[in-house]
């Protein structure tokens, strides 16, 4: 993730998932905080990010409440071609 368009795409990929109440994207760190009641765990979040072109992994933080997952998205959905304005 390297631009505002990436933030929008990540948010749009996660917001409609069942149980998601909020999505906060921190562009400088490349982290995404998802809040809600995720009955299926983090797998749907990671799959949605990957499908949107942002491979992700869970960041481990002891301060994150149980109902919050924090995948770290990397890359650009356009594959670095600048299709979303990234360069």
Account of the 3D structure:
It is a single chain. This protein has helices at about 5-15, 45-50; strands at about 20-25, 30-35, 55-60, 70, 70-75. It is α+β, with helices and mostly antiparallel strands and about 90 residues long. The strands form two sheets. A three-stranded antiparallel beta sheet has the order 1-2-4, with helices on one face. The protein has a two-stranded antiparallel sheet with strand order 3-5. The chain is globular and about 30 Å long.
The spatial strand order of the largest sheet comes to 1-2-4
Helix content: 10-25%
Mean pLDDT: 78
What is the number of helices?
A: 2
**Oligomeric state of the chains in view:** single chain
Distance between the termini: 10 Å
Keywords:
87 residues; alpha+beta; two-stranded antiparallel sheet; 2 helices; 5 strands; 23% helix; globular
């Amino acid at each position: 993730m390297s631009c505002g368009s990436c933030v929008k795409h990540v948010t749009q990929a996660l917001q409609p998932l069942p149980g998601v109440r909020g999505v906060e994207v921190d562009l400088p760190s490349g982290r995404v905080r998802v809040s809600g009641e995720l009955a299926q765990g983090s797998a749907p979040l990671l799959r949605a990010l990957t499908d949107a072109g942002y491979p992700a992994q869970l960041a481990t933080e002891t301060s994150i409440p149980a109902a919050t997952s924090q995948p770290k998205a990397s890359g650009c959905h356009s594959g670095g071609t600048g299709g979303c304005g990234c360069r």
